[in-house]
Specification:
By secondary structure, the chain is an alpha+beta fold. The chain is 19% helix and 40% strand. A 4-stranded antiparallel sheet has the order 1-2-3-4, with helices on one face. The chain is globular, with a radius of gyration of 11 Å. The chain starts with a helix and ends in a 9-residue tail after the last strand.
């Protein structure tokens, strides 16, 4: 994870978000986080996407 991603996750942790995994993409690391059943992502710049168009395997 980048430093920006770590800072974003740290600030969201107090709201119940937890890190699920980090996917290493050609564009940089993408952190997948969750708050209960709501998924979000954090890009390498620390930008949070609260409604990502991703689907996880069961």
């Amino acid at each position: 994870m980048s430093a920006e991603q770590k800072m974003a996750l740290y600030s969201l942790h107090r709201y119940g978000y937890r890190l699920l995994f980090v996917r290493h993409l050609p564009s940089g690391p993408l952190a997948i986080i969750a708050q209960q059943s709501q998924l979000s992502t954090i890009d390498k710049y620390g930008e949070v996407e609260h409604d990502p168009k991703i689907q996880l395997r069961d």
